[in-house]
Design a protein that fits this description.
Layout: E1 2-8, E2 17-24, E3 29-37, H1 42-56, E4 60-68, H2 75-83, E5 93-98, E6 105-111, E7 122-131, H3 133-138, E8 140-141, H4 153-170, E9 188-189, H5 200-227, H6 237-243, H7 245-260, H8 269-297, H9 301-327, H10 338-362, H11 366-375, H12 381-395, H13 397-424, E10 427-430, E11 435-438, H14 443-467, H15 470-489, H16 492-500, E12 505-513, E13 522-530, H17 533-540, H18 553-562
Parallel strand pairs: 1-3, 1-7, 4-5, 7-13, 8-12
Antiparallel strand pairs: 2-3, 2-4, 3-9, 5-6, 6-7, 10-11, 12-13
Length: 577
């Protein structure tokens, strides 16, 4: 039988003593956590282990002895260490020794009663695995993703063995509070042997975080109570609140702040990581918003933007009018249906005229609107971008009207063409059974269908030109929403942790054999494999704001082709793609 002994690299130079750790019978593994040095009283060691076991709920015990011989071997010490097995009874009993020079290691695992001959001691083969105790303690192990075409048995078993090692080290923090300079009865060597790591700034932040979180949580509760007032339920306030991106983004940020400043302690590493990601996202959002606010209010840029907005709107209107005049003629040499082309062109030109009058009526208030929009950037860049998206939706309402009219006409023609195409193939749509059935048509029906099909085919390009004007606005709003979603949902803290301290997010381990020697136990170095960046984003991605519809490229192209309306806000019946 081969036993696996996990030994911390920080204890390789420790003085001789006892191996303190946990035995995992399911994996036939011994996880060494610390070395207890001489001199000690056995009853005091047992009391210490009982206290650690009560605090951490980990079955900590004396696994064996550790002998470090920096000089010539001492036979008396070896006999003394072998005799400790009678005081601290454990099956199996490990005897780990590092010889002179530090290159030769010996390890034995003895059992008092062998399985073949009861009462006769036996020895098991031992594989010595070195691990970095600090990295294993601070890391979080993520189970591997098993492809569907592979069986999960081996992967689950391997992940379970690693999880037992990581969980043992993580839950044994009570043991690491003591170091070799401790004046207690037992001196220990582990990753904090030279003194427990501490920081005055960290301790001050911990002491001040409680009252600050309590105060901010009370303020957020007050804001939430004001938002839930019945006054906001009067029509049309609920309708506007559900359609405007700004209201949804403010509600989303309020939930983030309530999560960050909650007094409830995170129950799992995943919840702690979510809180950290949310805090970093909010801080980055506010920092970018303050930077935008300082840029807008320096050198009177808001006044410059207000002065330039009306001329830009006039220029856009002139370009749209010239585009419509071009479409009403023979665009790119194409011969359009002149009657339908003139009707649609004049109808859309009238909308542009109304839009220009609307912009000129709003021109005295534009600077005040931009000033308040810039001031809202102190709440975060995403709030300013959401306001910008709403302003773009309002300022391009005439283009949206073009789109709705063109989409309805385009959809009508597409449906007509699809029905007439079934007529040519001798089929029809059965409304009752919701399927396509065969049908026989007479000559008059085929003649009328051919005339209608020809008319719709030649009228379709004219309608499609006006219908596709909406694509530019959809692209601009899509880019704004994409940037808002990126700031809201990107796990920046997890990505920074993966970049600066890759071992904190562990996907698994890799083993490297260290200078195999004949007659010596196999020595292996365990190193942590960091989690890939793509899996970090997939695992710790935050929920995004649901103020606008989300379409895949396939569904977006399908809706554009069949003339289905693409709303600038999410409808109640929309499904996520």
């Amino acid at each position: 039988m081969v036993l696996k002994a996990f030994f911390p690299t920080c204890c390789a130079s420790a003085e001789s003593g006892l191996l303190v750790g946990r035995w995992v019978p399911e994996q036939s593994s011994a996880v060494v956590l610390a070395v207890a040095h001489f001199p000690f009283i056995p009853i005091q060691v047992k009391e210490l282990l009982a206290q650690v076991q009560q605090a951490s709920q980990v079955g900590v015990a004396v696994l064996g002895t550790w002998c470090h011989r920096p000089q010539e071997p001492e036979e008396n010490l070896g006999h003394f260490l072998e005799g400790l097995g009678a005081i601290f009874s454990h099956e199996p009993w490990l005897q780990l020794c590092r010889e002179k020079g530090g290159k030769s290691w010996s390890c034995k695992a003895t059992r008092r009663q062998g399985p073949a001959a009861p009462g006769v001691p036996c020895e098991d083969q031992v594989m010595l695995i070195f691990y970095d105790q600090r990295q294993v303690l601070l890391s979080q192990l993520h189970p591997p993703t098993v492809p569907p075409d592979h069986q999960a048995g081996d992967a689950t078993a391997g992940a379970g063995g690693l999880a037992a090692v990581f969980d043992t080290v993580a839950r044994s923090e009570a043991l690491f509070c003591r170091d070799r300079f401790d004046e207690g009865p037992v001196r220990l060597s582990h990753w904090q042997s030279d003194g427990v790591e501490a920081s005055i700034l960290v301790e001050l932040v911990k002491q001040a975080s409680g009252p600050i979180c309590l105060l901010v949580a009370c303020l957020l509760s007050l804001v939430s109570a004001i938002g839930a007032c019945r006054l906001w339920q009067l029509w049309p306030l609920p309708f506007l609140r559900s359609k405007l991106s700004t209201c949804e983004q403010l509600r989303h940020r309020l939930e983030h702040l309530m999560l960050v400043f909650s007094n409830q302690k995170a129950q799992s590493p995943a919840q702690l990581m979510r809180k950290a990601n949310t805090l970093v996202s909010v801080l980055l959002d506010v920092a970018l918003g303050v930077a935008l606010l300082s840029w807008l209010h320096s050198s009177n840029r808001i006044g410059q933007l207000a002065d330039a907005l009306v001329p830009v709107a006039d220029h856009v209107a002139e370009e749209l009018q010239s585009l419509l005049q071009w479409l009403m003629g023979a665009p790119a040499g194409l011969k359009m249906n002149r009657a339908l082309d003139q009707v649609l062109g004049r109808f859309f030109l009238y909308h542009i005229h109304l839009w220009i009058r609307y912009i000129h009526l709003m021109s005295p208030f534009i600077e005040h609107i931009l000033w308040h929009v810039g001031l809202s950037a102190c709440l975060g860049l995403t709030v300013a971008l959401s306001i910008l998206s709403d302003i773009v939706a309002l300022l391009t309402f005439h283009i949206y009207c073009f789109y709705v009219y063109g989409a309805r006409l385009y959809c009508l023609k597409i449906c007509g063409l699809s029905s007439l195409w079934r007529l040519f193939r001798g089929k029809k749509w059965n409304v009752l059974r919701q399927r396509v059935d065969s049908c026989s048509y007479d000559l008059d029906q085929l003649f009328i269908g051919t005339l209608l099909f020809t008319m719709l085919v030649f009228l379709l390009p004219t309608t499609a030109l006006y219908y596709l004007l909406r694509l530019l606005v959809v692209t601009v709003q899509g880019l704004i929403h994409l940037l808002v979603d990126l700031i809201n949902s990107l796990p920046l803290y997890s990505l920074g942790l993966r970049l600066c301290r890759p071992y904190r997010l562990a996907a698994g381990v890799k083993l490297r054999i260290l200078e195999p020697e004949a007659g010596r136990p196999l020595r292996v170095l365990m190193q942590i494999n960091p989690l890939p960046y793509s899996r970090v984003v997939h695992t710790y991605r935050l929920p995004s704001c649901g103020c606008h519809p989300k379409h895949s490229w396939g569904s977006l192209c399908r809706k554009l082709f069949f003339g289905e309306l693409i709303y600038p806000w999410r409808q109640k019946g929309d499904k996520q793609d």
